[in-house]
Amino acid sequence: MEDQATQTPVETGTQEAASSAAPKTVTPPSAAQTPSAPLEQGGASSAQSGPFSMEQALQDAEARLEKTVQRGQIVQGTVVLVTHDGVMVDIGTRTEGLIPFNQLTEENLSEEELKNLLKPGDSVTAYVVRADLDNGQIVLSKKRAESDQSWVKIQALFDQGEPVMVTVKEKVKGGLVANIEGVRAFLPASQVDLKRTPELDEYVGQSFPVKIIELNRKKGRIILSRRTVLESEQKEARAQVLSQLKEGDVVEGQVVEVTEFGVFVALGGVDGLVHRSEITWGRFNHPRDVLQKGQHVRAKVLSIDTERERVNLSIKALTPDPWLTVSEKYPIGSKVNGKVVGLTQFGAFVEVEPGLEGLIHISELSWTKRPKHPSEIVKEGQEVEAQVLRIDPAERRLSLGLKQTQPDPWKSLPDRFPPGTPVKGRVTGLTDFGVFVEIEPGIEGLIHVSELDYSRVEKPSDLFKKGDEVEAAILNIDPVEQRISLSRKRLLTPPPQAVSIPSGEEDGERRPRREGAGRENRPKRPKGKGGPREGRGLRERDFDYGGAGSTAAYNNYDPTVAASSNTNVKLGDVFGDLLSQLSLEEEHEKQAEKQG
Predict the structure, then answer these.
(1) Can you cite an annotated GO cellular component (predicted)?
(2) What pLDDT sits at residue 185?
């Protein structure tokens, strides 16, 4: 090589210079040596006349021989030749260094592009990979030198803690890869955004600021975080927003999250909470039934906690409370339309308008039916019409009636079924005190146990069972209390007349009088076979109510008396007993006349 050819004389001259520098014995010049002096001077003069003096050449050759390099050193050089193996670089040593093509750059270039990357005369900075001066081998790396310089810059950025702009190159398992100062760095998925994002493809090719959160040059590890930068920006924006907000302000924002207890609204750096109780005046099961993520809303600031960075908002505060005007909008007696929003054991809740609900008590659902649960009459979600019965704005209570919007069948019952009218119906219930009979759909009457038969009935269930058809007569109807008294025995044939005489009096014998305190002072009753004393041993069933065996019982019933009687089952029974007593007294008088 040319470099080796040029180095050989330099090395020889250097040796001569080294030998001349060694101490020698001074001797007078000989004749043979004398002529040579002018030649040396002439040679020296001729050498000095060239572009470089011999002294400079010797100094340069000596510097090359003395200069050494070590592995890991960064050197500056000049490209002297591009070969098939790489690029030859003069770094000031007696041997030139070689930069292999695979050590030129981190970019994936073709061989032709790599050969054209550097030209002779270009300055280059390289990293010493291997240095064997004895064998004349020096291997350099341009990309290692650039990486070393990049690490120095990266270390400075890491120490300063300042964000750096990067461009995402690709997506890998668990995150993204970006280049920072030419060095690959890893951006974990958890550090890409404020919330973990499962889909990272959209970030490939994007440029954004990041912060170096971990640096290890020995392992070549650089961990980046975009989330740290966003949190820092968010904190600054939050502090600015909190300093400007005050209670009572009306703000606008976007719903960013919907939870069971409320929704969060972004206010430009601060997320305000709208509790579920402050969303609307109306009823709902979950906040998502009212608001959706991404929806823009207006709200009123209720309170601000600067230390905890919390803002409480209210959406319903921007709309009037419906209970303030309920008396004017829905006066008592007016009819309203609403939707059944809830069913309980005691009634149904109807939403008249958002935030205004009324209760239809179970007793106000139907005129004729007595349901065990409101679901037998209405269903949740059903649209109904109801009448306003009572209003209490202070207690936020609204009482409604469903049956009031329908005709009351009890009002027409007395006209359609006057006392004594025979009716037929099916047994709907059995109790110890009587039998309930349905005379019309939803309208029931009671046959008291005393009105079931002329004979005493101990247990009505011995004679009837549910579903049996029974014929009875109307005794009394109370449309206010919704009660009907019936009598079965009034339609039955009375038993035959019978007179029973106490066995002791047939023989003229008297039973021994029981002694007791004060009996001597009692007034004596008149004696006689026709007196009331003789009837003490008679039973009620032995007498004929109607006076004839074929006469119906209700023929002896006086409608005028029944109409003026109290409207309950027991008083109706008393009326029946009164008729029996009248019949007994008449029978006693007849018996007395015959015997007199």
Answers:
(1) cytosolic small ribosomal subunit
(2) 92
Same domain, 333 and 390: yes
My answer on whether 393 and 330 are in the same domain is yes
Helix (H) or strand (E) holding 165: strand 164-172
What is the C-alpha to C-alpha distance for residues 221 and 15, in angstroms, rounded to an integer?
A: 51
Q: Does residue 497 sit within a domain?
A: no
- Look at the alpha carbons of 470, 476, 481, 482 in this order and tell me if their dihedral is positive or negative: positive
**Structural domain of residue 214, as residue ranges?**
161-231
Nearest residue to 568 via CA among 477, 440, 490, 488: 477
- The whole-angstrom distance between residue 523's C-alpha and the CA centroid of its chain comes to 89
164 vs 495: CA distance, rounded Å: 115
Residue 438 backbone class (left: φ over 0; alpha: ψ -120 to 50; beta: rest): beta
Please indicate, yes or no, whether residues 297 and 326 belong to a single structural domain of this protein. Answer: no
- Beta partners for 185? 178
Name the stretches of the chain with pLDDT < 70.
1-53, 55-67, 497-596
If we measure between CA atoms, which residue out of 376, 380, 384, 413 comes closest to residue 401?
384
From 146, 177, 194, the end of a domain falls on: 146
Which tens digits make up the pLDDT trace of 32-78? 333 333 333 333 333 344 455 676 656 566 555 556 777 778 888 88
**CB-based contact 539:595 (threshold 8 Å):** no
What is the CA 119 to chain-centroid distance, rounded? Answer: 68
Task: Kindly state whether residues 223 and 253 are assigned to the same domain.
Answer: no
The verdict on residue 525 lying in a domain is no
Residues 404, 77: Cα–Cα separation, whole Å: 106
DSSP secondary structure string, 235-255?
A: HHHHHHHHHH--TT-EEEEEE
pLDDT at 524: 46
Residue whose entry in the numeric block shows the structure tokens 């006689």: 528
Q: What is the CATH number of the domain that holds 391?
A: 2.40.50.140
Nearest to 188 by CA among 236, 225, 230, 232: 225
Residue of 365, 375, 378 lying closest to 442 (CA atoms): 365
The domain boundary, picked from 146, 177, 201, lies at 146
Contacts of 561 (CB under 8 A, 6+ apart): 575
Instruction: Report pLDDT for 595.
Output: 60
Element spanning 265, H or E: strand 262-266
Residue type, 485: S
Q: Could you give the number of structural domains in the chain?
A: 5
Q: What are phi and psi of 89, to 5 degrees?
A: -130, 130
- Per-residue CA distances from 263 to 307, 336, 464 (Å): 21, 32, 63
In the chain, count H helices and then E strands: 11, 25
Considering the domain architecture, whether residues 312 and 327 belong to the same structural domain is answered as no
The Cα 113–Cα 250 span in angstroms is: 64
In a domain, 518, yes or no: no
Residue 589 included in any domain? no
Q: What is the pLDDT of residue 236?
A: 84
Residue with tokens 């009875």: 472
Do 254 and 221 sit in the same domain of this protein?
A: no
Greatest Cα pair distance in the chain: 213
Q: 199: which residues sit within 8 A by CB, 6+ positions away?
A: none
| Claim to verify: residue 292 and residue 332 sit in the same structural domain | no
401/419 same-domain check: no
